[in-house]
């Protein structure tokens, strides 16, 4: 073997310049630029099902827009199943970790068995008994999402203008494209999905026979919003939702775009301080990422409360409130139709709403003295939003179905699960501190108590847990089969617990002593203690609110508050004085004098109020 004849004393001298050159090369070699990649597809020329007129125009319009915004764009129109699969594979192969990736599809899309499928132009016509056949002849949306997620892009953005009517002539009922629009999805982490229409709605290509615009009403609305400087991704989706709905209502059609947001951080198609990005689009290999400095979001209509101007969609059109707004007492309501509303309990007005982000909520909680809202979803996520603008600030995934959220006195976030798990998360990082099996059933309320929290469950147990260590310090069992739905403190050692079967229990946590009475005929949803501490108020399945003197076996006052289940009734203190607020499955939010003698305000959530929380300025 050849060995150079270099003396030991000379060898280090030769190594130094080599090392210096190597270090210099590392310094001078630029890091791989983050790419903006887009695959844009549009199908008009369907061979066996109804043809479309504007899908290819939509694809071309979106492609040109994205090119001008610095994306490296691939446009494919009127593609067969084999061509669609080949194009998708080629596009996926071009993605590197950390890229920003966009996929747009305009054409026919259908829901089959709760999943969404995009249709190539050679899809055969079918009948309702050919589900598996059609699945094999189409492109499964979840496969596209999973393949994109596997590439570890920084952001995957999927936009679908595919919520048209059922294209299959032989399909009946809801089994094969029988339901309008696409099905609800669970977007993977790092993915943002936009639909041109909500679940169960059909998207319009045009507003009428004399509508000469080459694009569908969704795409024609989206393109100028993508070009708007300083408009972030979520606000782009919200504004597209408002404008499209207004256009559709002008021809008596219901179409409201929806979005699924599993992304942290802000993304801007066009940032305020960006140069003319079309100069960079000619050669994507030299594309510079957009400026990293966060631009100031312009004032646009974001459904933030004003009494004087309301759009046809029912959304409020007023300038965005500042983050340092004078905080009133707040009530937050969420329902069965993906809608969260935040209300000013002082003046009985809507402050803000989150509408259009398609998520099934399992619970929510106001934290940080009303400045933030935690929302748990059936998809397993817990998302924090800053108020009043509903800007997403963080998210975490506990790994179990969340049934209740709370904030301990030291700020720690407490999470309870439907399987009895209890976990603590750091208030700043949202990193898990500890978890343990606290109950044998659904954890319902969590109440802070000094450096501890008190939890209750359908297993009938009331448990006290140290917040820092996660150690159980006391457990009290109410009665056999007692499924607790809510608890409230009477004092530091005594709580009142209400149950599914209408029982009310007074529990001394220090001694374990329990006193039980029969309260309602059926489920009691909530309980609270009057401000003077002498009585409690319970909310029942028949919509009634009942006042009870502590320990009494019969109520001294009752209010027929709601026409359906009363889901909550709590006392709060506002600038305008103390009041009782109740929520119901009838969609009403009602405010009463503390003693229940007369209603003083009413607001309409719009659908059944399933989740409720409040921030009281009085503590």
Account of the protein in words:
The structure is a single chain. This protein is of the alpha+beta class and 619 residues long. Among the domains are: 36-286, Rossmann fold, CATH 3.40.50.1460; 323-371 and 519-619, Lipocalin (Beta Barrel). It has a six-stranded mixed sheet with strand order 2-1-3-7-8-9, with helices on both faces. It has a four-stranded antiparallel sheet with strand order 12-11-10-37, with no helix packed on it. A four-stranded antiparallel sheet has the order 13-14-15-16, with no helix packed on it. A hairpin with a 5-residue loop joins strand 29 and strand 30 (535-540). Helix 2 (55-68) packs parallel to helix 6 and helix 6 runs antiparallel to helix 7. The longest helix is centred in the first third of the chain and has 18 residues, at 11-28.
The share of residues in extended strands comes to 35-45%
The name of the CATH topology of the domain at 36-286 is Rossmann fold
Spatial ordering of strands, largest sheet: 2-1-3-7-8-9
Mind summarizing the main beta sheet? 6 strands, mixed
Give the overall shape, derived from the CA principal axes.
elongated
Structural key phrases:
alpha+beta; Rossmann fold; Lipocalin; 6-stranded mixed sheet; 4-stranded antiparallel sheet; 7 helices; 37 strands; elongated; disordered N terminus
